[in-house]
Design a protein that fits this description.
The structure holds two protein chains of two kinds. By secondary structure, chain A is of the alpha/beta class. Chain A contains eleven helices and 16 strands. In chain B, about 55% of the residues are buried. In chain B, helix 3 crosses helix 4. The chains are: A alpha/beta, B alpha/beta.
Chain lengths: ~325, ~290
Amino acid sequence: MRLVCPAGSPPALQAAIDHGADAVYVGFRDQTNARAFPGLNFTEDDLRRGITYAHARGRHVYVALNTYPSPSGLGAWEAAVDRAAGLGVDALICADMGVLDYAMRRHPDLPRHLSVQGSATTHAALRYYRERFGIARAVLPRVLSLQQVERLCEQAVVPIEVFAFGSLCIMVEGRCQLSSYVTGASPNRHGVCSPAKCVRWIEEADGVRSVTLNGRLIDRFEPDEPAGYPTVCKGRYDVRGEVFHALEEPTSLNTLELLPRLQAAGVVALKVEGRQRGQAYVASVTRVWREALDRLARNPQGWQPDPAWQRELARHAEGRQTTLGPYHRSWH
Amino acid sequence: MRLTLGPLQYFWPRETVYAFYREAAQWPLDVIYLGETVCSKRRELRTRDWIELAHELADTGREVVLSSLALLEAESELSALRRLVENGRLRVEANDMSAVQLLRERGLPFVGGPALNVYNHATLRLLQEDGLQRLVLGVEHGRAAIEEWRAHAAPLPELEVAGWGRLPLAYSARCFTARALDLAKDDCGFRCIEHPDGLPLTSRDGTPFLTVNGISVQTAGACDLGPELDELRAAGVDLVRLYPQREGMADIVARFRHALDQAGTLPRHGEENGYWRGTAGMLQVNAP
């Protein structure tokens, strides 16, 4: 299994390579990717240097062009496809059919991966993207149970990549309009979820902090309560007279203990989420997963997750909590 | 513009569903969409029941479309989808790419549902090659998107826009109704049936915010484009969709029918839809 790690900046890319990523995925500094955050991502020069660094060490660089352009925006996405191809990236990660089609026609030899934002959850959907756009790999949405992932691998329409670690989208990627509905900033269209410019923290006299997103109250925190970033899905709301995390509590996905099963299933690549995270996160998470994968390769039968790995990963988890998420039935 | 009844998004008892569609058959609608789009565990009507009901409604001479599930995960759901696609008579509204593939493999023309990601003319053209004849706009799209498509794509398929009802905003592997009732999804007791218009979710300051509906999340109130019908006409929208709700549906259909027949508009009964104006969906641009 290849380890695919995130980089939102050149130092993060270098950290991922240095700590054992087989491939690093990055985005350009615009709306063509699903982490279009201020100060994040790569200029053309950054990417050129990053590719040189990776290729010199036998690693790969993928470029995510995984948002959905409007008709007038399509040209910019096509130009980004050409730019990535010209720089010699190893694969494109795309969701929009128009972008995939363009990439296939213009750069047939450049591998195309279906982004998680493409929302393909069945072998029929995977067949569509395989037949229509010749995708070489598909990243599965974080909605399937482990048995469902195993079955999709068995059916072998296309090699499968799954999310291994990082922030957890509770909704099917590519089909969540919660941020768009509240702020107008859309993960699909703008590569942005709950943008910081819409967030307001209000401290009340008693020390209680309220947080709003575009004026809508997402949560309130007691003075000693840890407060996470206010995405709509991780707020606390009132349903049937009870206030709780009605959609999802702030936790991170961590599939480390599933590693042997993912390998046995035939998953070809594991993705670490977090292009918005810093170099330290990338270095530490990459190092743990590299070690876990290497130890699995050496001793597939006797492999056990090391408690030190789990402690290290928990440090980086949202709300300091991790979950097997949808891979595990009881989570649903 | 023609008037359509969108698929039932909620879980109602079997007899309630049949009674609803017996009534709907009498309403002045041009098209009826039906089928389970949210959760495959909702089996008061099984796939074959939906198909049979659809065929009966089609016998009255009306256009009937079978709507597919938005999020497929299990093999059994694909089998149900296959039965829908192979119903032998009626078009299917494809709500995910599995449906598009099964329809395309059989060379069957179809309606693209609102849960497909269609954001530009290139995608639209590819889907038209696959057999798409009509597109129900995704919730994020409004007037400007239609105008932009029109400028880039020729010819456009028929365009349908949701004119009334709670809009589906997100889908998940998790069931939020089960979560609210502190039940495991695999042991949910089919409790959605107790909430015929979903479960209201409010902010901690008491503001109505969203609606929890099984594995989907919707807007709190019904979005209402009745006052904007003139703009829909001007944008070249072909069909206006009304989503079923438990009470008052006959009146809603009658009001929209009247406005369409008179080429007029309606006073606002529901929520404004910011998406139509190209802003955040929840923003009430014209609010006093």
